[in-house]
Design goal:
Helix content: 10-25%
Strand content: 25-35%
Number of strands: 9
Order of helices and strands: HEEEEEEEHEE
Largest sheet: 6 strands, antiparallel
Number of helices: 2
Oligomer: single chain
């Protein structure tokens, strides 16, 4: 009986060890998959709208009301390393919108903020009660983000220096976004040894994604 109990204990210990190990692997991979899914869904929205930059309905004479206002109305109002603001009829309803995508390192989010042209001035979208919605989180757990701008599809020609001037913004034809995302929760059994990662020497797993968007309405 003692021998049988000892053997059973060894078998149960082995089974429990395998289960715990498998559960850790499953949890870690599930966290990574969730982070990638959130990022890809957000990039799909971001890319679809950036491709429409310059698709403007009607006549717009000013950028008054936008946070990047310099008085001049432009298809791309602002283009920096971590933010872009552009005009387009994003929902094809006949009303031009201005959209700003920005990376917030404090909250580790890429946010989206929107205004609409009311014939006289840009007005920020609100909740229906007159309260501006502000910048809304689109992609969470972003540990690094850069926007890169180019005049054509050939990256070997060099990219435009940020922040872009008004003349450079008018020549943008390709926008590339590079982001690093992390898992929603740390894994105490894992240490990030990637020295290029913003999460180096932490317990967070990361993945890097790159997407290139052709701004097809610019220069038409």
């Amino acid at each position: 009986l003692l021998v049988a109990m000892a053997i059973s204990a060894c078998v149960l210990t082995a089974i429990c060890s395998i289960y715990v190990s498998s559960d850790k692997v499953y949890t870690a991979q599930n966290q990574v998959a969730q982070a990638q899914q959130d990022a890809r869904a957000g990039l799909d929205i971001l890319g679809r709208e950036i491709r429409m930059a310059g698709f403007i309905r009607g006549t717009i004479n000013t950028d008054a009301g936008l946070p990047v206002s310099d008085g001049n109305n432009e298809e791309i109002e602002d283009a920096q390393a971590t933010t872009i603001t552009f005009e387009a009829d994003t929902d094809n309803d006949g009303v031009t919108e201005a959209v700003c995508y920005a990376y917030n390192p404090a909250t580790l989010e890429i946010t989206r903020q929107e205004w609409w042209w009311n014939v006289a001035v840009w007005q920020e979208w609100d909740d229906g009660a007159g309260n501006p919605l502000g910048a809304l989180a689109l992609i969470p757990n972003v540990t690094a983000c850069t926007f890169v701008y180019d005049t054509d599809a050939d990256p070997t020609n060099g990219t435009l220096a940020v922040p872009l001037t008004a003349a450079d913004r008018a020549n943008v034809r390709v926008v590339t976004i590079n982001i690093e995302i992390r898992t929603g929760r740390p894994d105490l059994s894992f240490v990030n040894r990637d020295a290029t990662s913003a999460m180096f020497n932490t317990n967070f797993r990361t993945r890097t994604l790159q997407s290139r968007f052709f701004v097809r309405n610019m220069g038409l």
